[in-house]
């Protein structure tokens, strides 16, 4: 959810899932702002490409969900190196 004058709000089943959604939403917003700042007509992909991409990204049985679970341990290690005091 994008809150006017308050930023982004996300929820997830787990902390890694919520972080993943927030990270992707923020990155999408940044990309949109950069694209719109070019002051040129944007070219969008055809609808069939968008639908195909959407279908491919849906969770499938037997395939790991793309919800941040794989990246979370690496992000915690990176944070531990930068500032381990967050654990206190």
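^ Assign residues to that structure.
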């Amino acid at each position: 959810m994008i809150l006017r004058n308050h930023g982004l709000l996300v929820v997830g089943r787990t902390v890694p899932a919520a972080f993943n959604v927030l990270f992707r939403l923020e990155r999408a917003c940044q990309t949109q702002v950069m694209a719109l700042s070019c002051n040129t007509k944007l070219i969008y992909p055809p609808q069939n490409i968008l639908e195909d991409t959407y279908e491919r990204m849906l969770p499938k049985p037997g395939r790991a969900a793309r919800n941040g679970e794989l990246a979370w341990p690496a992000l915690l290690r990176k944070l531990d190196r930068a500032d381990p005091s967050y654990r206190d």
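The chain has a mean pLDDT of 88.
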